[in-house]
Amino acid sequence: MRIESLRYTERFGSVRINDLQKVLELDSGRKSETPRKEEIAVHKIEDEVIKDIEGKMAIVIPIKDEKLKLFEGVISGIPHDCLIIVVSNSQRKRMDRFRMERDTLAQFCRFTQRQALIVHQKDPQLAQGLAQAGYADMLDKKGVVRNGKSEGMVLGILLAMLNKKEYVAFIDSDNYIPGAVWEYVKIYAAGFSLAQSPYAMVRVLWHYKPKISPEMYFRKWGRVSEITNRYINALLSDKTGFETEIIKTANAGEHAMTMKLAEILPYASGFAVEPQELISIFEGFGGILPTANQAAAKHGIEIFQIETRNPHLHEERGGMHLRRMILPVLSVIHYSALCNSEIKQQISEKLIEQRALQPEGEMPSPYLISPLKTVDIQGFTSFMKEHLPTYSVLEE
Ligand code: GDP
Ligand code: CO
After folding, report:
1. Strand partners, 25
2. Ligand 1 pocket: which residues have CB below 6 Å?
3. Rounded distance, CA 213 to CA 67, Å?
């Protein structure tokens, strides 16, 4: 793969935020021995470098009642050497959709000679393991794991950790283009190959997100992303005194982290999970509030933002969904200790304008799941050891 070199990096305390890098060539050909002329402007990342990283990466796929055909397409796009971890919150009662997902995955793994894990979010063993580890944040009143994509993501990170993966990445299960899925993984690996710190994150920006109304239109920015990016940048600009537009991937559902970074971040419930990761990094390592983790601060946190070639086409859930999304997303910015009263005011006005908040309504405060580092991982690991094989789709 060839991607643009890093042209520009902004620093915020010990965080290095790299400006957008575009994919220039999906396949960069054979490894050549002679030095190339384009070296300065372009990174060529060799296939074997990408494959090495893929072998150390788990891909977490959260799924809730998606069409099976979509799911099948998504898994077909995940490079062979990655470990697939599916975390499902699909219904099991009227129709056992989880069972269907499991069967689909098992058949795929049999034919492709690979291993994968699948777990249901409401699995009682998992809940027991989490309770044992003192991870009450993840559990609801009934003692099972809470609903929500981010809860599913945290379960995925835990399973990746049990499988000793160095990198953990996320890909939604409602993606229509397997080739795009494939590209996301290549991008994650390319980003990590450029990272200098063991605490790194790669966030994907879609080249286009087409809308069909009535003809295909290749939209560049989604409405929610545009708004989220703007306020996160406002928050940074306010603290540094220099206006910036560096953040372009505030809502990137498609993103990946080194396990070292994934362990130390808190996660916001629901749709706010992706912007909250950035907010937590800025709060914990921006040098304004107390440092969240000394080792990480010493190495620095590195954020890559890489733009795909493939367009992003996923399930469209309509305007109501947008409105439901924007409230939790902006409320995590609003409640950040870095947010000043002027930005808070602007956020309230925006939400009222978008009819996501009543004029006198109260901003809901985000629900945060504490970092994995703070719970008894050892306890969880020893409890899960005997149950882990039951999540594999193929008998070992
Ligand atoms: P959007 O793409 O951000 O608009 O959000 P989606 O509604 O497409 O959700 C993103 C992904 O999370 C999809 O793959 C969903 O199937 C999945 N998902 C949604 N809710 C849950 C949940 O409660 N648990 C799990 N494990 N996955 C979920
Ligand atoms: Co989606």
Report:
1. 2
2. 62-64, 66, 87-89, 121, 147-149, 152, 172-174, 253, 314-315, 317
3. 22
The 10 Å Cβ neighbour count of residue 246 is: 19
**DSSP state string for 143-200:** SSBPSSHHHHHHHHHHHHHHTT-SEEEE--TTBS-HHHHHHHHHHHHHHHHH--SSSE
Residues within 5 Å of ion ligand 2 by Cβ?
172, 174, 314
Q: Residues 6 or more apart from 266 whose CB is under 8 A from it?
A: 276, 280, 368, 369, 370, 371
Task: For residue range 214-239, list pLDDT tens digits in order.
Answer: 676 777 667 788 999 999 999 999 99
What are the chain's domains? 2-230+244-316+375-391 (3.90.550.10)
Atom of ligand 1 nearest to the CA of 315: 8
pTM: 0.96
The whole-number pLDDT of residue 5 equals: 93
The rounded distance, in Å, linking the Cα atoms of 238 and 338 is: 9
CA 294 to centroid of chain Cα atoms? 24
Ranges assigned E (strand) in the chain: 2-4, 9-12, 15-18, 21-25, 42-44, 57-63, 83-88, 116-120, 167-170, 200-205, 209-212, 216-219, 255-258, 267-268, 301-307, 368-369
CB contact set of 317 (below 8 Å; sequence gap of 6+): none
